[in-house]
Amino acid sequence: MIELKQNIQLKPFNTFGIEATAAYYAVAESVEGVKEILSNSTIKGLPLLVMGGGSNMLLTQDFNGLVLNIKIKGFTVVEENDEHVIVRVGAGEAWHQFVLYAIEHGYGGVENLSLIPGSVGAAPMQNIGAYGVEIKETFQSLEALHIETLQTRTFGKEECRFGYRESIFKRDVKGQYIITHVSFKLSKKPVLNTSYGAIETELNAMGIDKADAGIKEVSDAVVHIRQSKLPDPAQIGNAGSFFKNPVVSAEKVAELKAQYPDMPAYPSGESHKLAAGWLIEQCGWKGYREGDTGVHKNQALVLVNYGNAKGNEVYALSEKVLQSVKEKFGVELEREVNII
Ligand code: EPU
After folding, report:
1. Tens digit of pLDDT for each residue in 22-46?
2. Nearest CA to 339 among 73, 124, 20, 8?
3. Distance set, CA 300 to CA 77, 122, 203, 328, 339 (Å)
């Protein structure tokens, strides 16, 4: 029997460290457990909030429904040949634990995604990405439970419709499924991706020749870079990048470049991706603090909670940031974090 708790404080369960109460709270460690809790008559019809690592959400109010924490664990090799291995991972494993598992076994493909907070089940929802790699590149398939029918459905890569911090789970089927397992195709003969400049710079600083680097060294470099730029949620509450990097037309980039020649911009298909952190920094927000909320001093894309910020205070700051970027650059930022 799964315990259904009442009036639970969510502060320890979200990396932003925001206080909010859940009317009901339960932990599921298996697919059967998820089914059991969803069939419980007490919570029928109430809103549902599925939590993995709680690392991509901003709670702006108490939650008058069920918060379901998915803790389905386990790594299973389901297929293997000389080149590849397919590993099926429980949605409740911490993402970085999976990266460490892959590195320990010599399986390549996720080393650039080291130290990203959050759970394996949440990772495909927003196609997590960092340092030139996105999860869609190693993604094989996922299993998800339909909340209404309690039937399991397997989603292949195409069906997930991955994009930049995007998938079908944030769009067409939003709120309809609970991801229970994710399978990844990893390489036994890893090809490193050090195209993101900072990785090479960091390898050099670590005294490692690029030719001698393996997945462990790339992972270590990424960990160092992240630790130097991004606040550790255990010390300062945050949810990583608060906004997405905006994608704009070639005309818009040309117009901005004429005025700001140093502005970073990267081709992205037909369009161009701008660095939201740079735009926000130019508006003077980097290191800004207002009460217990603020903009991180090393990475302007990250909003922080110094201890007792309320969710709506962080949200209000994000609105000011958004407005100022719009006024100065004519670029509309989009929030990456889920606002609850
Ligand atoms: N920049 C500034 N000021 C800042 C922050 C950045 O000028 O305060 C400039 C940097 O100098 C650089 C450019 O912006 O020229 C890009 O910065 P960075 O390499 O730090 O990456 P980012 O675009 O700010 C994205 C992801 C991160 C990911 C990094 C590394 C998004 C929304 N964010 O940040 O992902 O770790 O690239 O690949 O795409 C996350 O999603 O939570 C996250 C942390």
Report:
1. 999 999 999 999 999 999 999 999 9
2. 20
3. 40, 24, 24, 16, 19
CATH classification at residue 329 = 3.90.78.10
Are 92 and 72 in contact by the 8 Å Cβ rule? The answer is: yes
Least reliable range by pLDDT among 4-13, 92-101, 204-213: 204-213
Domain harbouring 66, CATH code = 3.30.43.10
Residue 88 tokens read as 């099926």
With 0.85 as the threshold, say if the pTM is over it: yes
Query: Within this chain, do residues 96 and 179 fall inside the same structural domain, yes or no?
Result: yes
Q: How confident is the model at residue 123 (pLDDT cuts 50, 70, 90)?
A: very high
pLDDT of 269 reads: 85
Could you say which of 181, 199, 229 is where a domain stops?
Answer: 229
**Ligand 1 centroid distance, CA of 286 (Å):** 13
d(CA 54, CA 56): 6
Total domains in the fold of the chain: 3
The pLDDT tens digits for 63-91 are 999 999 999 999 999 999 999 999 999 99
223 and 80, same domain (yes or no) = yes
191 and 97 within one domain: yes
Indicate which residues carry an active-site annotation. 165, 241, 336
How many Cβ atoms sit within 10 Å of the Cβ of residue 262? 7
User: Can you state the angle between helices 215-229 and 95-104, rounded to 10 degrees?
Assistant: 150
249 C-alpha vs ligand 1 centroid, how far in Å? 20
By the 10 Å C-beta count (0-12 exposed, 13-18 middle, 19+ buried), 296 is classed as: buried
Q: Which domain holds residue 321?
A: 237-339
Task: Identify the domain boundary among 31, 53, 70.
Answer: 70
Q: Which atom of ligand 1 lies closest to the CA of 130?
A: 38
Strand blocks (E) in 136-235? 139-146, 152-156, 177-187
Minimal-distance CA residue to ligand 1 atom 10? 278
Nearest residue (CA) to ligand 1, atom 11: 278
